[in-house]
Write a structure and sequence with these properties.
Blueprint (H helix, E strand, L loop, with lengths): L2 H6 L28 H7 L12 E5 L5 E8 L5 E7 L11 E7 L4 E8 L3 E10 L2 E9 L4 E10 L4 E10 L2 E13 L30 E7 L5 E10 L5 E8 L8 E10 L6 E7 L4 E8 L5 E9 L2 E11 L5 E9 L2 E12 L4
Antiparallel strand pairs: 1-2, 1-10, 2-3, 3-4, 4-5, 5-6, 6-7, 7-8, 8-9, 9-10, 11-12, 11-20, 12-13, 13-14, 14-15, 15-16, 16-17, 17-18, 18-19, 19-20
Length: about 350
């Protein structure tokens, strides 16, 4: 039941699970109780990018630097997680992560990069047969560059990339490269204390979540229950945090991924932002801030089909180490309480 999937996906610790007591008017149109997963995947706009999955894409740039990319499906195949790294380095972790997803509110493919050295990119991609166009902004702590790329595929396992710089003087090519797919995967450097990225001060309030798994359990009004498990870690090679939220295993079902969530600071403004990509195609995004009295506040919007809902969330660490998570929905100009749960660390066996 995905009616409450939207509600619980709001959670900064990502608990997008069914809760029977929330079968109310959370959305004007409720999702069906029985979902044909195969049909959903085939109908998803993200299937236009299925050709990128499998193996790894290798490139040698004109300056001799080698890079490898892996494209992996996100939850429900409604997004893709792209890792880039140097195959000739035994000490460098992956160069952050790129996230490609269909945004139901904007009706376009969005590419977001959470990259090494506190760099960040925001782009839009278009694909038409063997042609791909990418326009993006590349942010550093001191500048923002306007860039674009064109890709032309030559069969299933090769494409040519041309990168352009957009300046006041006009548009000019800056690099041409050929990517070739390899079925063999290069080794990825393990993250160690030596090569781990040092988190920025902006993410300090969330760092206590990292390296732990958290669980939440609650009872619905009708006596039904829900449970969630969320794993937090640093994005490899990037000053960002990601969370994988799962529906726990039961006697009849395996543990299943519900969404991926990302928390990151903009390199220039240092403001905190949030993005969640769900297994049913919903996209949740918003801004975070640490409150003067303690705790963290998250204001976000959920985009599901043609529905847009605004939420406010409050996260507070308790004296006993648990995490209190409260969510309100904005309705008719007022905040309506939706969720008040506690998350506890899962103790290792």
């Amino acid at each position: 039941m995905r009616t409450l999937h939207a509600l619980l996906a709001l959670s900064i610790v990502a608990t997008p699970l069914a809760w029977a007591s929330a079968q109310d008017d959370a959305r004007p149109e409720r999702a069906p109780e029985v979902v044909d997963v195969k049909a959903e995947k085939s109908a998803s706009p993200m299937q236009a990018w299925a050709r990128m999955a499998g193996g790894e894409w290798r490139v040698t740039y004109p300056d001799g630097q080698k890079l490898v990319q892996t494209w992996n499906w996100g939850p429900g195949q409604h997004s893709m997680r792209i890792l880039s790294y140097r195959p000739d380095s035994l000490v460098e972790p992956p160069n952050g992560v790129h996230l490609l997803y269909w945004h139901p509110g904007r009706q376009e493919f969005v590419l977001k990069g959470l990259l090494a050295n506190q760099r960040h990119m925001d782009g839009v991609m278009k694909i038409d047969g063997d042609q791909v166009e990418l326009t993006f902004q590349f942010h550093t702590d001191s500048d923002t560059l306007q860039m674009s790329e064109r890709w032309t595929f030559d069969g299933a396992d090769k494409f040519h990339e041309t990168m352009y710089a957009h300046t006041d003087a006009g548009v000019s090519p800056v690099r041409e490269s050929d990517y070739v797919r390899s079925k063999e995967l290069s080794p990825i450097a393990a993250r160690t204390a030596k090569n781990a990225v040092q988190p920025s001060k902006a993410l300090h309030g969330l760092s206590a979540l990292v390296g732990h798994s958290w669980e939440a359990k609650a009872e619905g009004d009708a006596g039904n229950s829900f449970a969630a498990e969320t794993d937090f870690a640093w994005v490899p090679g990037s000053d960002a945090i990601y969370a994988h939220a799962y529906k726990p295993a039961t006697e009849t079902e395996e543990r299943s991924l519900q969404l991926d969530a990302y928390f990151y600071a903009h390199p220039r403004s240092k403001t905190l932002h949030y993005l969640a990509l769900t297994t049913w195609g919903g996209v949740f995004e918003g801004d975070l801030r640490e409150l003067p009295e303690g705790g963290i506040e998250l204001i976000q919007k959920g985009f599901e089909g043609d529905q847009v809902t605004e939420y406010v969330e409050r996260l507070d660490f308790q004296k006993d180490g648990r995490l209190r998570d409260r969510v309100w929905r904005m309705k008719d100009g007022k905040l309506e309480p939706l969720l008040d749960i506690l998350h506890s660390k899962i103790q290792a066996d």
